[in-house]
Every structure is written in structure tokens, then in C-alpha cells.
Design goal:
- It is a single chain.
- By secondary structure, the chain is an alpha+beta fold.
- It has helices at 3-19, 59-67, 78-84, 86-90, 124-138; strands at residues 23-30, 35-42, 53-54, 71-74, 95-102, 108-116.
- The longest helix is centred in the first third of the chain and has 17 residues, at 3-19.
Length: 144
Amino acid sequence: MNAGEAEWEHYLSELRQHIECDFCALALYDASSRQIRWIAASGNINEKFRYMVNRPGQGISGEVIRIGRTVQRTCTSDEQRRSVDSIMLAERLVVAAATPVRTEDNETMGILLMGRRIGAIYTTPELAMLEKAATYFSRKPETA
């Protein structure tokens, strides 16, 4: 982990406490290779997220890239998690919400995701906090 990732994980930890969720993660999107790679997390139960790579349209993160807006998913079984997103399965998330992280030119450069291991869906104010938090990551240099 480099210094930028450590700073991001610290911020993710603060965000996780503020929104009262179990898991927060940041992924970067490489448009040239069309890959989404998770690079930092807080509240994770393992390190599997570091090895996950998705494509646009694949899972909740890919849906965010494809449609360009915040998405929320609820999955109550491992089978549902498997079909929605590998990160939800690996982290045993029941509810997840993800939003795009955009550059100043409004290009999607990443995804900010928060998740809960219980079934309480996110409220409109919590989703607004997630979207506001995404602006913090848009000002940071990429590490990938």
C-alpha cells in the first residue's frame, strides 16, 4: 500500500463511521483497458477486494460506470450476491450503494461504494453523503 492509498483508507474509515455502514471501498476505472480495480477499503473482512477486477456492466460497480449515477442493491443470499457483484459476496454485504467518482471534466475515474451486512437500506440523505464524499476522491491523484 502506498501513501495515497493509506490516506484514502483513513478517509474511508471516517466516512464509514459517519454514514454508519460496515464497509466502504474505492475503485479506479481505467477507460483504456475498461477495467475497474478496487484499491482501498475500510471495514473489510478480508483482502480479496484488492484482487478483484470488473468491467463496465459487470456488477454494481460496472453498472455505475455504464449508467453514470448512484446505484443501490439489496441481496439477502450468497447466490444473489454472486450475481450482483463479487465484492458484495466477498464482504458478505446485504445492502450496497455505489456512486461514480468524476474528474473535473466529468469523466468517470472511479467508484465509491458503501455497504452494510444487515438489511437496512440507505436513506436519501445517506446517498447524498456518499455522492458528496465522492468529490473528495476526485481531487486525489491516481495510484494505479
